[in-house]
Amino acid sequence: MSTLPDKTVERLSQYRRNLLICDAKGKEHIFSHEIANIHHITPVQVRRDIMLIGYTGTLRKGYNVKELVELIGQILDKPEGQNVAIVGAGNLGRALIKYFVNRRKNLQIVAAFDIHPEKIGTSLVGVEVYPLDQLKQIVKEKNICIGIICVPVNEAVPVTALLVDAKIKGILNYTPRPVNVPENVYLEENDMVTSLEKVAYFAKNKN
Amino acid sequence: MSTLPDKTVERLSQYRRNLLICDAKGKEHIFSHEIANIHHITPVQVRRDIMLIGYTGTLRKGYNVKELVELIGQILDKPEGQNVAIVGAGNLGRALIKYFVNRRKNLQIVAAFDIHPEKIGTSLVGVEVYPLDQLKQIVKEKNICIGIICVPVNEAVPVTALLVDAKIKGILNYTPRPVNVPENVYLEENDMVTSLEKVAYFAKNKN
DNA sequence: TCTCCTTTGTTAATTAACAAACAAAGTTAA
DNA sequence: TTAACTTTGTTTGTTAATTAACAAAGGAGA
């Protein structure tokens, strides 16, 4: 499968999460307009996304929930799983760990890193905190391919360098400092300050 | 000024943050390609954004840093400021408060809300925690127009209803549950699970 | 049986976002 | 003085994303 559009990938992730809830409720089939309502998009968008992954529903019954979840899994997940590291064991790091622990078999947070000596060796919801200078070694040992940066803003750049040096394949940067990565690393920036300023701008124009 | 494109607003917010750093370093002028390098975009994009807000630089010197910061402020900020509430005083709420406190004069977090009795009345970095059932009243008293949702996922929907009822104008939702708002409220969803799954998908395809 | 209705799957059109191209203007240097 | 260079501002083209449009299929109900 050639790589899917950015936005489609995001939506598939969201669809799956709600499909799992539907499945847990015993719902066997779902229509495109039901999915659309949950996510505030159009049914056409949903059908288009599903078309792109090559699934096909049945007329008048819609999509089989279990089958669709299964297929989205085949698209999004790596069969052997992917291990994730949190860099920065502050409030945000802890929030992320709590969110993810025991949620997804195929995407597990297996290590946290921090620079503060008093945090080293402690465990956050079962995830051990290692010193930053062991990052490269632990990444290799634990076969980690994704890093989430949630350190204070000034450390974003050096931490990125560490992750790149450790041969990480994907980085999710939660600091407001834009960072640089080479071609062979996927980078996603998620800047909370910008998100809030954006909401503020558009809220300003609401009656 | 008619409302700017979504993406332009995001970039202006980011430009400003780095321009302030430049200003603090005493840099008076900056070229479009310098801004572009910092943010990993093209100089053309930068010039286009700046064109959209009607600023004009000087040939061979570039843009005046102070003037540009000032103008972006006029575009993005509300002169009388905007007050923000955090709903959910967990790890993520604390992370956000720490991020924002004393950062921006025009965008201040003035209250936090939580459902757990033991948190009520405590103060996080100077921001007091109120019980959830006082939300409407406090929002009115403190003239809050933006709410950031960082409660556990199951409470996202009822909390949104509370915020809408309290006549909030903008909502930033950090839970993975999509929520519904009426026309006159701006909603931004920022789902960490999706962000991570997206990174995982694209990282999978890196060599 | 036949018509209408619902819902999918797909193509076509539109819109939004980004990038390329280049004229204009002023600076430097020969 | 004049030619080359730099950098902005704007137009035009291109790519990506969304929306609109509609054929096909297969019930439901008259």
Question: What would your notes on this structure say?
Answer:
The structure is a homodimer of 207-residue chains. A 7-stranded mixed sheet of chain A has the order 5-6-4-3-7-8-9, sandwiched between helices. Chain A is an alpha/beta fold. Helices cover 43% and strands 19% of the residues of chain A. The longest helix of chain A has 19 residues, at 6-24. The first copy, chain A, folds into 2 domains: 6-74, Arc Repressor Mutant, subunit A (Orthogonal Bundle); 82-194, 3-Layer(aba) Sandwich (Rossmann fold), CATH 3.40.50.720. The radius of gyration of chain A is 19 Å and the shape is globular. Chains A and B meet through helix 1, helix 5, strand 7, strand 8 and helix 8 of A and helix 1, helix 5, strand 7, strand 8 and helix 8 of B. Chain A binds a DNA duplex (30 and 30 nucleotides) through helix 1 and helix 3.
